């Protein structure tokens, strides 16, 4: 029974450390350091070409929400609005603005000449 105080101290230390992590004492993702990424890969050389787009939350700690992309005149008919919704010229939102979990990837395909897609606005949900 002499190990019980040691066990309690270890347990108390783990609980305290865990609560500090949950309350924001752990490293969070700064918008400039962990911006969502967009990667486009041409998967078919047909006419028009086919592209696979992968949007990734690069933050290992926090979900990212309301990811908006600069998307030019991307036609809504090319992809489901649940994956990429065209809001206006040069403004598209990924995943209907819903969270992408830490390091989660969302992908979709479209057949058209290549559109330049890049993140413009996003918010981390760290707390």
From TrEMBL:
InterPro entries: TPD1
GO process annotations (BP): cell fate determination
Highest taxon listed in the record's lineage: Eukaryota
Chain coiled-coil ranges: none
Name recorded for this polypeptide: PHD finger protein
Keyword Transmembrane: no
Pfam families linked: TPD1_C
Signal peptide: 1-26
Record keywords: Signal
